[in-house]
Amino acid sequence: MLPHQLFKLLSDETRLRCLLLIAQHKALCVCELTAALGESQPKISRHLAQLRQSGVVTDERRGQWVYYHLSPHLQPWQAKVIEQLHEADDLLANYQDDHQRLSNMADRPCP
């Protein structure tokens, strides 16, 4: 993947928010991302499919749940970009509500 392709993926707020949450929590399922972002399941699934097809995230089935996590095959520069985004406190403050909604989620599946 070329840099402009990664940045194009990250230019969508829903994909960025999904990626930040996945980076923070290591693995999340669609239902957790749906609750955290307050978006519909089809919308979240569509954005996760784009991230998966691009190789940024991978999925893993655990029983009835499919968990998404950062791909172990990211290029070093890709991992660094995502790491820098994840560590940017001022950026994360803008999405603090996502983390709060995830924390407050009832009946959260166990990873």
Overview of the structural elements:
Helices cover 61% and strands 13% of the residues. With 111 residues, the chain is α+β, with helices and mostly antiparallel strands. It has a single domain (3-103), classed as Arc Repressor Mutant, subunit A (Orthogonal Bundle), CATH 1.10.10. A 3-stranded antiparallel sheet has the order 1-3-2. Helix 2 (13-25) crosses helix 5.
- Pairing-aware structural class of the strands and helices? alpha+beta
CATH superfamily: Winged helix-like DNA-binding domain superfamily/Winged helix DNA-binding domain
Rg over CA atoms: 13 Å
How many β-strand runs?
Answer: 3
Q: Gap between N and C termini, in Å? A: 29 Å
Count of individual helical segments: 7
Helix coverage percent of residues?
55-70%
Which CATH top level class fits? Mainly Alpha
Unreliable runs, pLDDT <50, ≥5 residues?
none
Order of helices and strands: HHEHHEEHHH
Q: In which order are the strands of the major sheet placed?
A: 1-3-2
Q: Report the biggest beta sheet as strand number plus sense, adding barrel if it closes.
A: 3 strands, antiparallel
CATH fold-level label? Arc Repressor Mutant, subunit A
- Average pLDDT rating: 90
Topology:
Layout: H1 3-10, H2 13-25, E1 28-29, H3 30-37, H4 41-53, E2 57-62, E3 65-70, H5 76-87, H6 89-94, H7 96-103
Antiparallel strand pairs: 1-3, 2-3
Helix pairs in contact: 2-4, 2-5, 3-4, 3-7
